Each structure stands twice: as structure tokens, then as C-alpha cells.
Amino acid sequence: MKTSLVIMAAGIGSRFGGGIKQLEPVGPNGEIIMDYSIHDALEAGFDRVVFIIRRDLEADFRTIIGERIERICPVAYAFQEKEDLPKGFTCPAGRTKPWGTGQAVLSCRGIVNEPFLVINADDYYGKEGFRIAHDFLVANGMRKGSFCMPGFILKNTLSDNGGVSRGICRVDAAGNLTGVTETHGLVRDGRGAAVEKEGMRVPVDPDSIVSMNMWALTPDFLDELAVGFAEFLDALPAGELKAEYLLPTVIDGMIKAGKATVRVRPTHDRWFGVTYREDKASVVKAFEELYAAGVYQADLYAK
Q: Are 9 and 55 in contact (CB under 8 A)?
């Protein structure tokens, strides 16, 4: 069973270089977070990498990471553009950004025809999630509407430097996802975790399962995205310029409509990410510890 890793990287800024968090070197030889995701996915058994980028970044992206990865596995590119809309829709004047993670993955339609795992470019997920996802996809095959989400523990995904957004999940006794609530302003505090609302901190269970936009999916999901994107656009109020078509919202809707089952498989790996400039030092230190523990070798892609 062939499987692909799909990396959402269209959110990278319009100019490569300093300040672009997805390209911040965090490893001993200048490795970026994407390097570790690709390494861990290939190690888990994934066969191909698909980068979702903006077309104006293609040449620079290929130079910085794409050509290097092409030497070790098949690579394809999908392009997310704010003007890429269903027939009958036009991008409103004043819209500056693409339409979110749902549109990003939709750009893979016609490129990805096999089971796939979608991830963010700027998150370090650890090895376990990739193994969980790959094993599920191989066992599940092409069964429509049957998906998997490696579920992270909230306390393992918080930043020491400010609030983060996470999809807090509801899971039934059988281990299936029943809903996702996108929650903003989640912070670490003395009790474990809290959400900041109107200057106050409301406690949140630090052991909650959260979505980190790591979804194991089948190609039929792309058709569902296409239908849902048109419906999303049609429902937008006139003049709306910031609305986003988001994967957790789409999947939550599919679950409620009985169109999908999402098996949640918890992982206890710790998340790293450069959400804030101040995060970089702690991420670099975390990778140093992983190398010291033998999790990674100096030449990351050595056979």
C-alpha cells in the first residue's frame, strides 16, 4: 500500500530568510523542523512527500529543501492560491491570504490518489504519531470515510512563551472522535493548563486529547473537501475577508453528518514548535537532547 506525507507549507512568508518560522534552523547542521517530520515519516514507511506551497515560492522552496528531499524519495508539489476557487466564485478584493487548511489540502486533488497523512510544516510531532498513522492507513486501505487522528496530550503541546490554539477533542468509549472544539489562548499555568478569556484564566484539563492537524485520510476526503468548500464560500456574508476553511471544522461536520469515523490513537510524544521567537532556544535544546539520546544521528538521512 503506497502512502504519502502531505506537508502544509503555504503559510510560509512571501520572502525566505530570517523571521520565517518554518525555516528557522533548529538542528546541529541547520536542519529545519520539516526535515525531522520527513525523516520520521519515511522511517515509519511513507513512500512520498507532497509539499503544499504558494506558486510564487516554488523556486526558493525547491532550493532550500525540495531538491534535497528529492534525492531521497519521490516529491510532488501542490499549490495553494487564494484565487483558486470553485467555478462561479471569485476572490473578493482585499483578501490577502489563502483560505485555510481545508483549501490547502484540497489543492492536492488529482495529485494524491493514495492514503495520506497531512501535517503542518512548522510542528515537530515526534516519531510515534507517524507510526500510528502509517499503520492505520496500511491496515485500513482505501475504505471511504474511515480516518485516524494521532491525538496529543494537551500539556505536551503548550508553549512557555504565550497562548496557542488547539482543537480540543471529544472521544467516545470506543476511541472514536465525536467532535473537535477549536480553542484559542491555551496556556501553561500552575494547575497544568488554562484558556485566557477576557483577562481571566479558565482551567482546562491538561490531559485533554488535542488535534495538532495530523490527520490520516483517504483520497475520497478530497472530494468531500471540494463539495464543502463551495458550500463554505456560498454561505459567507458579503465583504468577509478573513474567514478560513479549516480541516478540523470539515472533519467535525463529516462526523456529525455520519459521513466519517475518526479513530483516535493517543501519542505521548512531546510537541515542539516555533510559535514565538522566544520558542527557538528551547526547541534547539530539545533537539540537542534527542540527538544525545540517540533518537537522531548526525547525518539525518544516512542509510
A: no
